[in-house]
Amino acid sequence: MRQDIQPDLQEAVGHLALLDRIYKTGLPLNGSLSFLNNWTYISSNPERDFEQLTTTGPYAGTRQAFETGVRFAARYGHLIPSNAKTKLWASDSERVIETAQHFASGLFGSDWEKVGRAILEIIPETFDRRADTLTPGDTCLKYIVDEDRGHDNGIKMLTLFQQAYIPAIAERLLVEEDNRELEGFTDWEVFSMQEMCGFETTVRGSSPWCDVFTREDWKNFEYGRDLVHYYRGGPGNPYAGAMGWLWLNATTNLLREGPKAGSMFFSL
């Protein structure tokens, strides 16, 4: 299930470093970035909020998980057995567990644990789980250590593409600001600005960062994100098939076992 979450630590560090550098100039901003003169970051308590499920705004992760459960119940409730507990699996991550709990509340009702409608099984994300895991990206050794084709290849491909589309944006913003103290923006700083559009929208419902960029800028950002996922865990990664096989194998075994295995399973 897709989760609307706060930035992870690495993303947040980039956001805050950029904002700190801008504010340290002590000069009012002009042009597209003038909103920063009266803007505050999406979290006042980073240590508490980062990497957590969002809880505010129309796109709150808690709300979306609950509403997904409600919609699922309306469409497929007749497939859920009434005489057996339904199993839900979640990896050992606070936001994933919380997502599963809100989904279950929407699907079964807020008392689902108390009345025994379902069981939530939490699977550790530790390396020693090997193939018995929901998070093979944390347990596949070759995927982790292969610097050329493993986990980090997605970011490498994104970095190359950033060099093709971001310099023109950085130059445009610098000309608008006419502030020599800024000295320019790096590729990752501009990318951080684009990230903040999405993160702020999930928390507050909208974001002035979104208006800083053109439609073409957003198409390039989208393609950049596609590159990350294609080469990190998609067809562009040689280890993706082996890691995805875990879900395929588990699903195949359930189908082979037939109705006695149960009629509904959820992995969140």
From TrEMBL:
InterPro entries attached to this UniProt entry: His_Pase_clade-2, His_PPase_superfam
SUPFAM superfamilies with a match to the protein in the record: Phosphoglycerate mutase-like (SSF53254)
Signal peptide start and end residues: none
GO cellular component terms listed in the entry, alphabetical order: fungal-type cell wall
Keyword Hydrolase among UniProt keywords: yes
Pfam families, per database record: His_Phos_2
Gene3D superfamilies tied to this protein: Phosphoglycerate mutase-like
Organism superkingdom: Eukaryota
Membrane-spanning intervals of the chain: none
Protein keywords: Hydrolase
GO MF entries: acid phosphatase activity
PANTHER family assigned to the protein according to its UniProt record, in alphabetical order: ACID PHOSPHATASE PHO11-RELATED, MULTIPLE INOSITOL POLYPHOSPHATE PHOSPHATASE-RELATED
Protein name according to UniProt: Acid phosphatase pho5
Organism: Aspergillus brasiliensis
